[in-house]
Amino acid sequence: MRKSIFYSISFILFVFPLLFLVYKSFYGVWVWGSPDQGNPSVRAWERLLNQGEFLDSIGISIWIALIVLGLNLVIGITSGKVYAFSSFRGKSMLEALMMLPLFIPVLVVAIGLHITFIRYGLSDHWLGVALVHLVPTIPYSIKMFKTGYERIGSKLIEQSTILGGSSLQRLYHVELPLLLPSIRSVLFLTIVISLSQYVLTAIIGGGNVVTLAMVYYPFTNTADEAVVAAFSIVFALIPIAFYIMLEGCLTVMLPYQHLRGRKKL
């Protein structure tokens, strides 16, 4: 009974909206009082593909998201481990300050960083956009990895040290496999946040770095809802495809993951 309720709610909240967007992208808007919906058309998809910067923006968005993800994993794992296992003066205050970028208006952060990025030549460059995307993502990553390390505990890491394992061996064979739930959460959340950044990208990129969000948001003002629906489908499927691809990479790269799949079978 509970599974049926869960699947029903999941279908209503996640699957049905996507199916509705697919329907609207081919049929457009149904006018009230019209006797029929009309014939399906790929006009919206053709207009989307003919948009000059559309395909290029997908590549730039994916490249920036990969850079942001890599930096989040490195910073999140190292900082999360320190916060989980170390005690030092001002730790609580530092954790509170770490979450501060999530409560400060994005426009204030972007304008403040823009001045600094201009001085160092990072403005109007994809690297500057990738670095500014760390502002809304790093706090989540550190929190998630801190929780992951607290869940693991220090005993397993201490045992691997006693058995003679190096720091890299401990990381690869002990920490990363046990941190996989946190890695999955950071992976998906970071990609979604990075792809959806419009204000930060517009200010730091200066219009020279055109991501998918930069192309997408102007389309929301158009009256052609079929085009908006087609664009929304692409915008939704990219993080999903990204997640599936990286999940496969994690299964191959991290040890013992293939053994878990065999146990389930």
Characterize the structure shown.
The longest helix has 32 residues, at 54-85. This protein folds into two domains: 1-41, no CATH class; 42-264, MetI-like fold. It contains 14 helices and no strands. With 265 residues, the chain is mainly α. It is globular, with a radius of gyration of 22 Å.
What keywords describe this structure?
2 domains; MetI-like fold; mainly alpha; single chain; 265 residues; 0% strand; 14 helices
Q: Which geometry do the CA atoms define?
A: globular
Low-pLDDT ranges: none
- Reading off the top of the CATH hierarchy, the class of the largest domain is best stated as Mainly Alpha
Distinct helical segment count: 14
Structure summarized in a few sentences:
This protein is mainly α and 265 residues long. It has 14 helices and no strands.
Write the layout of secondary structure elements.
Elements: H1 2-27, H2 43-49, H3 54-85, H4 91-98, H5 106-119, H6 126-132, H7 134-152, H8 155-162, H9 167-178, H10 180-195, H11 199-205, H12 212-219, H13 225-253, H14 257-264
